[in-house]
Amino acid sequence: MKKQQQLYKGSLNTIIMKLLEQNGKMYGYEITQKVKEITQGEMNITEGALYPALHKMEAEGFLDVEMDKVDGRIRKYYKLTENGVKETVSRMEELENFIRNMQNIVTGPDLKTI
Amino acid sequence: MKQTLTTEQVQFIENALIEKCDFKDFNDVRLEMVDHLASEIEEEMNHSNSDFRTAFVKVMIKWNPLILPKTISFYSNVPYIVCKLWKSLDSKFYYGSLVLSILLTFVFYKLIESGTSLVTLLVPVISIGLIANVYLFYKKVTTKVTTTLSVYAYKRLYKNSLTFILFIALNIALSLDGNNFNLFPLYYGLIYFSILMVGRAFVAHKNIKIENQLLKVI
Predict the structure, then answer these.
(1) Which domain covers residue A96, as residue numbers?
(2) Which tens digit of pLDDT belongs to each residue from A18-48?
(3) For testing the chain B interface, which of A31, A47, A64 should be mutated: the one with the most B CBs within 10 Å?
(4) What distance in Å separates the CA atoms of residue A76 and residue A68, rounded to the nearest whole number?
(5) Tens of pLDDT, residues A88-105
(6) CATH number at residue A39
(7) What is the 3-state secondary structure (H, E, C) of chain A?
(8) Contact B31/A47, CB-based, under 8 Å?
(9) Is B77 within 8 Å of B87 (Cβ atoms)?
(10) Chain A from 31 to 70: CB within 8 A of any B CB
(11) How close, in Å, is residue A71 to chain B by CA atoms?
(12) Residue A43 lies in a domain
């Protein structure tokens, strides 16, 4: 499980952006729960990785924020900006290429000769 | 029955972040942390059927590395989560200013060597820096709520402004004798502080949206 976490680490921003693309707007806790739910507990986004990533993408202009009062406390929602949508498409392409290449390497017949 | 936190319990979390973790000035991140901590505490209370205090201690122990004040590079006693954002801004604005200033100083050197007037080059740099400086002071005075970005943008504003003015005065005074080439270290300082001011003004401008969102809910 710990080794898998390392593999996911490089794709954290892409995962967050993809979730926001699918769900419109989300808040931090909701993102951690959604990832847990989708991966059936296999992947766990730590707060130490999630919030710095969200804040950095917000400062870079990929994310926009919206605040609302929910259950007596203030909730900060994140959503993709126009630039963020474009960036998500490009990052998803990169990630898909990476997965395809890994798949080819792992299942390819020439693995032993590499 | 599903347990949810009372207003007093949410306030207790917020007070802990202000008093123990120095989150007072970082309203945006503090409110976000309060919401996340409250959600986790509620989950813990419902999952293990524990009371608020027990769940609070358990969740806070897990969160300590992220929220306790740390001293990292230039920043002392700032919550780690804030340090992380400031460090990423530094790599863009602070180190970016250093590199861009070196490049511009070199370009200026070449242009002056080929006969371009020093005044033509320095006046736009000084003007842009001064406009950015005035904008920063204006925003600092008129800001109604502090955020992680606003504290970053106005950090060392007085010190940086004084140094910028000093560089302008020195450049003007020492350029009068006409020997421009000996003064390149001074041009570098002037260009650097001007770019630094523009970078900070950009951060202050970005903060407007977050400030408006905060003002809407608090």
Answers:
(1) 2-107
(2) 999 999 999 999 999 999 999 888 888 888 8
(3) A47
(4) 7
(5) 999 999 989 988 998 888
(6) 1.10.10.10
(7) CHHHHHHHHCCHHHHHHHHHHHHCEEEHHHHHHHHHHHCCCCCCCCHHHHHHHHHHHHHCCCEEEEEEEECCEEEEEEEECHHHHHHHHHHHHHHHHHHHHHHHHHHCCCHHHC
(8) no
(9) no
(10) 47-48, 51-52, 55-56, 59, 61, 64-70
(11) 9
(12) yes
Residue B70 main-chain phi, psi, to 5 deg: -130, 165
Asked if the Cβ–Cβ distance from B36 to A47 is below 8 Å, we say: yes
Summarize pLDDT for A47-75 with one digit per residue, the tens. Answer: 889 999 999 999 889 999 999 999 889 99
B40 and A CB contact within 8 Å: yes
User: What's the pLDDT at B116?
Assistant: 83
Domain count, chain A: 1
Percent of chain B with pLDDT over 70: 96
N-to-C CA span, chain B? 30
Across the interface, which of A28, A47, A66 has its CB nearest the CB of B213? Answer: A66
- Residue B102, token pair as written in the block: 């070196």
| A-B C-beta contacts closer than 8 Å | 74
CA–CA dist B125, B148 (Å, integer): 28
Q: Which residue among A48, A59, A65 places its CB closest to the CB of B88?
A: A59
Residue at A56 is within a domain: yes
Statement: residue A1 has pLDDT above 60: no
What is the C-alpha separation between B202 and A14, in angstroms, rounded?
Answer: 26
Give the mean model confidence (pLDDT) for residues B173-182: 67
Tell which of B2, B12, B14, B32 to mutate to test the A interface (max A CBs under 10 Å): B32
- pLDDT tens digit sequence for B142-166: 999 999 999 999 998 999 999 999 9
Chain A within 8 Å of B90 (Cβ-Cβ)? no
